[in-house]
Amino acid sequence: MRRERHRTLKAVSSTIGDLGEFGLIARLTARFPHTDDVILGPGDDAAVVRAPDRRVVATTDMLVEGRHFRRDWSGPRDVGHKAAAQNLADVAAMGARPTALLLGLAAPADLPTRWVEEFGDGLQAECAVAGAAVVGGDTVRSDSLTVSITALGDLRGGRAVRRDGAAPGDVVAVAGDLGLSAAGLALLRAGRAEREDACLAAHRRPAPPYAAGPRAAELGATAMLDVSDGLVQDLGHIAAASAVRVALRRGALRVPPALAEAVGLLNRIGATGRDPVDFMLAGGEDHALAATFPPDVALPAEWTVIGRIDEGEGVALDGAPAEAAGWDHFS
Ligand SMILES: Nc1ncnc2c1ncn2[C@@H]1O[C@H](COP(=O)(O)OP(=O)(O)O)[C@@H](O)[C@H]1O
Ligand SMILES: Cc1ncc(C[n+]2csc(CCOP(=O)(O)OP(=O)(O)O)c2C)c(N)n1
Ligand SMILES: [Mg+2]
Ligand SMILES: [Mg+2]
Ligand SMILES: [Mg+2]
């Protein structure tokens, strides 16, 4: 009895160092079921994934502890969800359906086994939302914790929606939430995350509108991207690639009630002097989709029109050049 108890306690407090590399890999991969796209999953030198379209959409993004997440601000499941979402959103932003994901994990040996298990569960849960499977990865010991994901997608015979197709006269529209994640981060920074709300949830677990990506391609979207660094900064990439001006209307950005409430609190405690719309324009980590469409396209309700494409360059807000106050890892 006493030995049992001892073993249970040890299991609860075990680290990935106790498991060893292959024990850890087994613990992780047991959580990743196959989908119909998977011909061969983890365990061999490489995975084999179906590509019915014969064109493969491929993208990669890293999450670095301290820079993209903090373990005292986000739980392991949150980090798993976010690591998957950040990558699967890029696949959707091409107009593709995510099929597979590869997980690179660099972690210190004293990382609790439980942390990796829950991270794996979060990763798998987000993949399931998008219809993708985790098919492989790599595991190394490191002084710091880094998650590096590669995601694959299938275009199902549709067009890849690039950043360079926007034309004057097109409308600019957004699907998904803007500003909530940045407000959640500001609440965490201000030490005011005691009450769970939509902003904290959006920051910890972004919820990209995956299916809107392929649907936008079918509707005839001329350009599209996911908003990761901030709306204005990211739309600047469409403006530059398409050699057009993105003209936004501030009044078209409808402030979600949770954002208004969070920014109200932040302003009352002096943590920010900003308007909620500024969070929508410059926030970052929204993983909403922003796209341009020809003006005659009837857009379903998941899209909100926020501006139009003009001749010219850059991003304008109500006629004046907009400040691109988004995220840059090196400035
Ligand atoms: N280290 C790198 N090597 C090669 N390509 C890169 C590297 N970093 C970024 N890129 C490419 O530059 C483009 C912009 O990157 P990024 O801003 O990270 O895109 P996103 O916000 O969609 O993740 C992408 O096409 C990406 O693949
Ligand atoms: C501890 C912490 N500090 C700051 C941030 C905010 N932040 C980190 S990266 C980032 C931008 C998006 O990440 P990036 O690596 O640029 O993704 P990509 O554009 O490549 O999709 C933001 C807003 C955060 N999430 N966590
Ligand atoms: Mg990237
Ligand atoms: Mg992107
Ligand atoms: Mg970025």
TrEMBL record:
Residue numbers binding substrate: H68, E285, W327
Record: residues binding Mg(2+) 4: D45, T59, D90
Annotated CDD domains: ThiL
Keyword vocabulary terms for this entry: ATP-binding, Kinase, Magnesium, Metal-binding, Nucleotide-binding, Thiamine biosynthesis, Transferase
Domain PurM-like N-terminal: 43-153
Keyword tRNA-binding appears in the UniProt entry: no
UniProt GO molecular function: ATP binding; magnesium ion binding; thiamine-phosphate kinase activity
EC number annotated for this UniProt entry: 2.7.4.16
Binding site for Mg(2+) 1: T60, D61, D138
Pfam families from the UniProt entry: AIRS, AIRS_C
Enzyme class: transferase
Binding site residues for Mg(2+) 5: D229
Residues binding ATP, per UniProt: G137, D138, R163, S228
Catalyzed reactions: thiamine phosphate + ATP = thiamine diphosphate + ADP
A single GO BP: thiamine biosynthetic process
Similarity comment: family membership: Belongs to the thiamine-monophosphate kinase family.
Purpose: Catalyzes the ATP-dependent phosphorylation of thiamine-monophosphate (TMP) to form thiamine-pyrophosphate (TPP), the active form of vitamin B1.
Protein name: Thiamine-monophosphate kinase
Source species: Actinorugispora endophytica
